Amino acid sequence: MTHTAELKNGLDQLALGLTEQQLALLDGYLNLLAKWNHTYNLTAVREEQRMVSYHLLDSLSLVPHLNGGTRLLDVGSGGGMPGIPAAIARPDLQVVLLDANHKKTTFLRQAVIELGLPNVEVITSRVEAYQPEHKFDRITSRAFAELAEFVRLTPHLLADGGQYLAMKGVYPYEEISLLPDTVAVAEVLPVSVPGLDAERHLVRMVAK
């Protein structure tokens, strides 16, 4: 199966009704990730075929949980996951990709330009130093930090009534037990990622 066919099949399983144009953008992003990865070490996954499930479909599993949001912050975006796939799937969403690593944000800016994503902004900054004009109603991270550190560094970025959406592997019992009393866990959802034989969970948290 080609990686495009695998992507189409995965999108069907996730019940994401994307257009052919959106599919082409995801394919283009995958190609850029694979190309730049040789020089910039964006991901430990080297094969494009594995990138489909490990990166694209894993990132897209977040999309059904973004309803009600208008501004999404991807903290520690790295190679653009989950922010870029989410922005492609939800062009109505304003997405900010935040990372302190200049090499990675150089790649992200180039990807945004080449893919033509007007709803994406790239910021090079440490998260605690970032002071945007407008706050975010959804803040996500995929491989940034443990939950307690994630929420400790970002309270100034969360809008009133906003939600944290942390993407995790196995059920993070210990991380949840270490959360400060400033946040509450609204739910921990098991997430099924097509083609990925590994546990995934989404932790939705709100400020108290």
Overview of the structural elements:
The chain has 208 residues and is an alpha/beta fold. Helices cover 38% and strands 23% of the residues. The chain has 7 helices and 7 strands; from the N terminus they run H-H-H-E-H-E-H-E-E-H-E-H-E-E. A 7-stranded mixed sheet has the order 3-2-1-4-5-7-6. Helix 1 runs parallel beside helix 3 (48-60), helix 2 (20-40) runs antiparallel to helix 5 (102-115) and helix 3 crosses helix 4 (83-89). The mean pLDDT is 92.
Task: Please specify the SSE layout and strand pairing.
Blueprint: H1 3-14, H2 20-40, H3 48-60, E1 71-75, H4 83-89, E2 94-99, H5 102-115, E3 120-124, E4 136-141, H6 147-152, E5 158-168, H7 173-177, E6 183-190, E7 201-207
Parallel strand pairs: 1-2, 1-4, 2-3, 4-5
Antiparallel strand pairs: 5-7, 6-7
Largest sheet: 7 strands, mixed
**Record field, number of beta strands:** 7
Low-confidence runs (pLDDT<50, min 5 residues)?
none
Strand content: 15-25%
Gap between N and C termini: 47 Å
Shape: globular
Indicate the mean pLDDT: 92
* Strand order, sheet with most strands: 3-2-1-4-5-7-6
Q: What is the helix tally?
A: 7
Radius of gyration in whole Å, from Cα? Answer: 16 Å
Classify the secondary structure makeup into a structural class. Answer: alpha/beta
Give me a quick take on this structure.
The protein has 208 residues and is α/β, with parallel strands linked by helices. The protein has helices at 3-14, 20-40, 48-60, 83-89, 102-115, 147-152, 173-177; strands spanning 71-75, 94-99, 120-124, 136-141, 158-168, 183-190, 201-207. Helix content is 38%, strand content 23%.
